[in-house]
Write a structure and sequence with these properties.
Immunoglobulin-like; 2 domains; 5-stranded antiparallel sheet; 4-stranded antiparallel sheet; elongated
Length: about 200
């Protein structure tokens, strides 16, 4: 059995993530396999074809996967198949590049250790450096100085014509209800004050 759990061909690299034994809806033992495919080039790669071939001659197509992958991206492939004895091998081809992992025994189980994946500067690390490193604490930082909704006071704001063609913005009184109605322009207020002052 091969001990290699990753393979690279050109700008494509694949890493084995999990291999586990499960029981399907018919109460039969199946092997579930998940792998990650990364494109480390600066251009997208299409025409991707992935499959698992068993030593019994069966070819298994992925239950989840992609047929193309953009630059610097990582996508997953999932497989589920019955295999009681023998071994299996994963193979992938795309844009003239091909790679394979295996063979692995039918009872082989594996869980990839979670760690940071380092790629080249052209593809994956370009994105991981911008997002993984700088956003590592995203969602874990306690927000401070949030506004308490119970302490918010609402007020109305009014726009009035002022001298010289400008507009004067005035705020209503906080916490007190104001009556809506027509407002007296500033020049009319001055005239009213003059009339009151000259009234005998």
């Amino acid at each position: 059995m091969s001990q290699e759990h990753s393979a690279t061909a050109g700008s494509l690299s694949v890493v084995l993530q999990t291999v586990r034994m499960e029981i399907d809806d018919d109460d039969e033992d199946i092997v579930e396999v998940m792998l990650n495919l990364t494109n480390e080039s600066a251009i997208p790669i299409g025409g991707i074809s992935a499959s698992i071939k068993t030593s019994l001659g069966a070819t298994v197509n992925p239950t989840e996967g992609v047929s193309s992958i953009g630059p610097g991206l990582t996508r997953s492939f999932s497989f589920a198949f019955k295999l009681s004895d023998g071994d299996w091998t994963f193979s992938l081809s795309g844009l003239g590049q091909s790679l394979s992992l295996g063979p692995y025994e039918a009872d082989f189980e594996f869980q990839q250790v979670k760690s940071r994946q380092i790629g080249n500067a052209v593809g994956s690390s370009l994105f991981s450096g911008a997002f993984d490193a700088n956003l590592g604490d995203f969602g874990n930082v306690q927000e401070r100085e949030l506004i308490d909704a119970s302490q918010v006071e609402m007020s109305s704001f009014f726009g009035e014509n002022a001298e010289g063609g400008s507009t004067k913005i005035s705020a209503g009184t906080f916490g007190n209800a104001e009556e809506d109605g027509p407002k007296t322009p500033p020049w009319e207020q001055k005239k009213a004050e003059v009339l009151v002052a000259t009234d005998p």
